[in-house]
Amino acid sequence: MIGEFSKSGVIIGLLSSGVRLSTPFLLASIGEMFSQRSGVYNLGVEGIMNLGAFISFFIALKTSNPYFGIFVTILIGLVMGLVTAFINVTMKAEQGISGIGIYFFGYGLSGLLFRLTLGSIVTTSGFEPLSIPILSKLPFIGEVFFNQNWMVYLALLLVPISYIILFRTTFGLKVRAVGENPHAADTLGVSVAKIRYICIVIGVVLAALAGSFLTIGQIEATFVDNIAAGRGFIAIALVYFGRWRPSGILWGSFLFSFIDALQLRIQVLGTKIPYEYAVMTPYVITILVLSFLAGRAKGPSALGKPFEREST
Amino acid sequence: MKKALMMLLVALLVVGLFVGCKPQEKPVEKVKIALILPSGRDDMAWSQGMYEGVMDVQKELGIDKIEVSVTENMPNPVDAGAALRDYANKGYNIIIAHGAQYQNPVFEVAKEFPLISFAYGTAFETGDNIFTYDPQAQDGAYLFGMLAAKLTKTKIVGIVGPVKAGDAIKYNYGFIQGVNATDTSIKVLESYTGSFGDTVKAKEMAIAHIEAGADILTGTAQQSVGAIQAVSERHVYWFSSDMDQSSLAPDSIIASQAYYWKDVVVYMIDSRNKGKLGGETIVLDFGNGRIKLVFNPKLKNLITPEIEKLFNDTFEKIKNGEIKVKLPE
Q: Residue A189 belongs to a domain with what CATH number?
């Protein structure tokens, strides 16, 4: 079996699969990171993913153009983001509860719309892989990273981009200030509400795009009820795993996804390990790594606390 | 005054009594069927098959004879238990909990409602008012394994399983036997996603099979929709189960093993009319026509006359019991 793995084709397949599996996590987690950095956690990611998955699939099916699907998904993401922000920032809702509400709303609405509009499982064409010239010819890395579709590139590019935004721009500084000490930020004239609105909207739009990847991010796109299958919740866990940093989220997503891709292949190549153990490994290892790294960093101080200007 | 009022009241009551007893037309014997499904009624697999079966019964016997209620997306047996009790309290006559995982709640609720028929499956353990059903998934799977062994060019075939339980075990076991009985040099890869519904994971698993060299795949449950995407993208072949799925990938799905639940539901209604509320395992197999293999006309050209003859012979042998496809212990 070790011999089978040493074949480069197998390893390339494994890594490509890991990159594909990590894409929805990266998109959703980086979005959630912005939201949490500004002090608001959104547990509704899973619901938004399901909704984004449906909307993008439906529009792609009806227009035969997956790019329209992405466009409409972003619009819906904006609307849902504003609604989420209104509930959490303006109405100062208990974030744990409102998040679950948003989850059920997205999950239920996607299933309902699917039934009302399509009523049965159908397929359409999603995005084809987009080989990046020169880079895709690189041995090994080319096949793994540069022969995917543009949504994968977007997810990977978001890591440095979000790092720069968060740590190298005034906006990023404001985001972090609002998440750590909203009162101080407020005194300095930063609009806490505005920053949180923007961050929540970024989070929801990216969660919706993560959903799109599950449907039209595949060459043969299809939608089934509850297609996110828990990925939205794992994405939230990965924000904690990544210590609210883009690089940490990248490693967390890769770790989880590569081990998942690996366990699929270990099963396929045939071992005596019961499949239940194989299926568990990504979760177990992620938890193990997390517990070893525990205590090194803490989340934004104002996370989960609605901002009250008058409060002491 | 008080007395007069009393008289009036009594008179009213008496009149009311007669009004209540006014000659009624004989009530139509309506059978009320409740269906509890683990996934959506449009999952293109296990749940949809049963849903369509029940709806066909309603269409055939008439909407005035059959009333149907459906509860979907109940993968959790505890939630399903609440739904079962709810339907029982509302006076449904036949309550079908469509999954092996519902065994415990079915037995619990059935004890309290001895006049209601319950049904669940794939299973064998019946009760006085509990039917079970048992599709012989391994039979068609055996034939598919045989066809796969004949058609594979890479000499590797794969099974993308959901959870190692119920229908999936029987199907996979049959498929492996079919392959081995035809050509022992062919390797069967077998793996499980650990989920009935995670299509995205099933797709990645199917890709892992294809990258390992498999050119014909098969699998069960609603997750198989994802695996079918992968075979369609990578231009290999697939054998379907549960229902005819060829519309999902007309260039890849060679054949489907489809369950015809209508007959099972009709059987339960007839049994009830004869006074038998349960206590029987209803088998679905080729012999009684409750399982059929549906070939995709678009890929019919793959089946050469030689393979077709082998298929027909083996089909007959399974039907008349000459070949007995084994089940796991």
A: 1.10.3470
Query: B222 vs A13: CB contact, 8 Å cut-off?
Result: no
pTM above 0.80, yes or no: yes
Taking 60 as the threshold, does the pLDDT of residue A30 lie above it? yes
d(CA B66, CA B269): 10
Question: Within a 13 Å sphere around the CA of A78, how many CA atoms are in the beta-carbon half?
Answer: 5
Torsion of CA B261, B250, A70, A113, to 10 degrees: -20
Q: Which two tokens stand for residue A230?
A: 């828990």
Distance CA A308, CA A301 (A): 15
Going from the C-alpha of A159 to that of each of A26, A167, A261, A298, B328, the distances in angstroms are: 8, 12, 21, 20, 49
Q: What is the pLDDT of residues B38-67, one digit of tens each?
A: 988 988 889 999 999 999 999 999 999 999
Q: Give me the mean pLDDT over the B23-29 stretch.
A: 55
For residue A276, the chain B residues in CB contact (below 8 A) are 164, 194
CA A6, B200, B198, B142 torsion-angle sign:
negative
Q: What is the CATH class of B31-136+261-284?
A: alpha beta
Contact between chains at B233 and A218 (C-beta distance less than 8 A)? yes
At position A67, the amino acid (one-letter code) is Y
In this predicted complex, what is the ipTM? 0.91
Identity of the residue in B158, B208, B232 whose CB atom sits nearest the CB atom of A220: B232
Helical (H) or strand (E) element with B244: none
B193: CB partners within 8 A, 6+ apart: A264, A279, B160, B161, B162, B163, B201, B202, B205, B223
CATH, domain B137-257+292-319, list 3.40.50.2300, 3.30.450.20, 3.90.1150.10, 3.40.30.10: 3.40.50.2300
Closest to B223 (Cα-Cα) out of B203, B197, B194 = B197
Task: Tell me the C-alpha distance between B97 and B74, whole Å.
Answer: 10
The three-class DSSP label of residue B252 is coil
DSSP secondary structure string for all residues of B264-318: HHHHHHHHHHTT--S-EEEEE-TTTTSEEEEE-GGGGGGS-HHHHHHHHHHHHHH
**B203: contact with A, CB 8 A cutoff:** yes
Q: Do B189 and A269 touch (CB under 8 A)?
A: yes
B293: nearest Cα among B205, B178, B203, B198: B178
- The Cα B76–Cα B37 span in angstroms is 10
Task: Read off the DSSP letter of residue A218.
Answer: S
Give the β-pairing of A220-222 and A123-125: antiparallel
Angstroms from A74 CA to nearest CA on chain B = 22
Instruction: Over range B279-286, report the average pLDDT.
Output: 94
Reduce the DSSP state of residue A131 to 3 states and report it.
coil
Judge: B207–A17 Cβ closer than 8 Å, yes or no. Answer: yes
Instruction: Tell me how long chain A is.
Output: 312
